[in-house]
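Render this sequence as a predicted structure.
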Amino acid sequence: MSETILVLNSGSSSIKFQLFAVSARNRLERHIKGGIDGIGVQPRFRVAGIRGEGLADKTWTAGEVGTVPAALDKLVVFLRERMGGSLPRAVGHRVVHGGPTYTRPTIVTDAVLDQLERFVPLAPLHQPNNLAPIRTILHRLPDLPQVACFDTAFHRGHAEVADRFAIPEQLYSEGVRRYGFHGLSYEYVAGRLRDVAPEIADRRVVVAHLGNGASMCAISGGRSVESTMGFTALDGLPMGTRPGQLDAGVVLYLMGEKRMSAKEIERFLYYDCGLKGLSGISNDVRELLRSASSSAKLALDYFVYRIVLFTGLLAAAMDGIDAFVFTAGIGENAPGIREAVIRRLSWLGLDIDPAANAGGGPRISRQGASVACFVIPTDEESMIARHTLDVLRGHAGARVEEKQA
């Protein structure tokens, strides 16, 4: 097999991966994709080839694969067998929070890893799990290059007025500012627009990344100018289990009147709110759509309502809007949600083509609509692979220049 790039996206009980082959011209081709989920409970390993054909489907006991490092060991064994004993050229990782320090993908060292662990309190659901396999590989295979790709990086070019909170300068200097997330997804969608609708790609676009984690982004000229998420991944839209935009006084109330500790509030806001909290049923939009419960309807109506409100905010940040894009799990697979959003935005110039929407697009707006609407599936893993390869090439070039000097 040719040189490869391994991409890892790790959660608390799962590892998703994709393996990309690197051609002689440094082009990337997805070779296999898969993952291990149910780690510590009912571990299951599934892998598919380039055409979707099944390559592996294994299960283990919770004792055999009880931790992310143990799951990583199983993945390494499979990859060594698949690749004839060779290792990938490098491993690229999704890391949710890069803080004020990391504005672009970077090769991970012990010092970088220590710095990234400082941002765990800002992304407690994601950051520890993103970093766990990095530390394991760094310990076991220290010479294997690893590249961290940050969900915050795409938003780091925002104007200062968009990044600030109305708080004293000292806190801003310490890094208390609006970062924005899902940047790898937005960066991929911005690139895909050049293929799907080149006439729109450099204009004013609102992208809605709607999944269990949800946010929206204003993109103008292919660059992020505003995002609904801020200091942490709690802000903005309501999500599966997170509340989205919330008056800070609610947190003070929970502390003072409910006597909740900081840890109890953290768990409450990350696990018990959002669509799950509103519906009292589930954080899964598919289940809520099937339900006849009034609370399920309320949760979905609220979700759509907030998407519509934030569309106005993001359009204002760009002095207008030329296109709207749906992406991620809900955005790509829930035509009913898309239709509800577009119909409520008719005043802004959005007009849905019901047949195109039912078919999944990519263009789902009526011919002649003043604001074009699209469905563009995201692919964060290919974005990570591309960044990883670019970092390796830059790193190799820097070493050559150093030797010549």
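Summary. The first strand starts at residue 4 and ends at 10. Residues 199-380 form a domain with the Nucleotidyltransferase; domain 5 fold (CATH 3.30.420.40).
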